[in-house]
Hints:
Number of domains: 2
Strand content: 15-25%
Radius of gyration: 25 Å
Largest sheet: 9 strands, mixed
Amino acid sequence: MSPPIITTPEHPMNWSRYNTLFQAEHTGSFVYNAITNTLVELDTQHFMDLAAIRDARSDTGSIKDSSLLALLRKNKVIVAEGEEARLLLARQYKRHAICFDTSRLGLTICPTLLCNFRCPYCFENSQSDSSMMTSETVARLIHFIKSYKDIRHLSIAWYGGEPLLAFDVICNITERVKSLGLNIEDFGMVTNGYLLDADKIARLNDLKINSIQITLDGPEHVHDTRRVLAGGGSTFQRILSNVDNLMNSDYKGACAIRVNVDKTNRDKFVGLRDALLERFKRKKLMVYAGHVNTSIDHGYEHSCGLDLQEWTDFTFEQHRCKSKAPSADFYPSGNLDSICVATSHQGFVMGPEGELYQCWEDVGKPDMVIGNIHEDEPITNPDLQARYSIGTDAYNDAECRECNVLPICGGGCANKRLRAKQFGEGGIEFCSSYKDNLTTYLEAYIDAFRSKEICAAVLNQGIQSDNKPEFRDITPERKREIEKLRPKITAVSQEL
């Protein structure tokens, strides 16, 4: 049995700054805490009691129900003096432990920066660079991997440019890596799909590529105005034919179709998504929208881009078009520690000449190179590496520490934080959409929870009970342990 919770002047309990107390228009009253990512439903009286505590019209001693007090304490809705600072410090420690884990090596490898497409929003400026990774660089890469004596898990993502233009290099590197006897945790590929012919598809399983990302930017007439060949020409039909062949082959992995969305094609996303999911029903294929987000000096028309609020609205619109039923998937989740290849000590993006970057979006930018595998000491710019890993840590940012969604945001994209906070680049939104829309997400989950509950009552008992408890924890089970999930250093790109 837990010891009683004692609230006295000597041991005060305080309202957590990471609480959100709200009333949903049709579903009642709730309190959400971002540190524990938990949601409690309240009756009207208990809501009013908590509102008084929040507004400091009373203290936690006014709560007489010991069961409610225990639940609020467990969910960190009320906290002891200094407790939140200690909790955030523990999370920051965990973040650092993962970032500096020496048992994993994550590599994003660009065997070439050459690309056969000329997409107007692409962030790379080296699509015409025809250099391919040489055998000497491949040998240095293998030496670089072997130099990490403690690694037990290796992840590789093939990237570019267009990686399939250097397919022979991919095959060579893979065979040499396989001979090292490492635990290959994940091989993925980001490709435009145009060159993914039957011969290459037949090699994918042997190459241990278990995830592929391909981009289609809308139905044919839309896609072919955005993703065109370098010399001009349409690409949609050939890519779709290659996806057909992939999905109907013996390929064991999964395929993700990314649709890069801005104002010019957002109304085409749902139709394309539904058509693809119907076409490849019961196949390992997903379709998702990607946010076109270019730098301030990019030549692409910036008025086309969706800002953070427009993107959030689009997210809810696409769901409403998908189903009449609300979705439980809107419950807050994500990379709670904001960890990716850019913030990982042993995560690197490598170009065809052996140059090393810390982030996918830095590829082809000489001023963002952190080193080169041809050097005896590969890391020649540790300052930039530190600015990514430590300098973008939101737990060191006083403004972020005051934000009530920090624990479920983690600070947002490290690349965007770096550019905005340290390089002074304007017009960058790096905050999570939870900052201004948390209750919208929670209410969508609550609608789904209630719908499921009503259906269960009707099907199982044939009658819905009106006897609601005074309070109850309605956090989805799959979210309770989310902080225990370990993010991969390298994964199929969520960027362009």
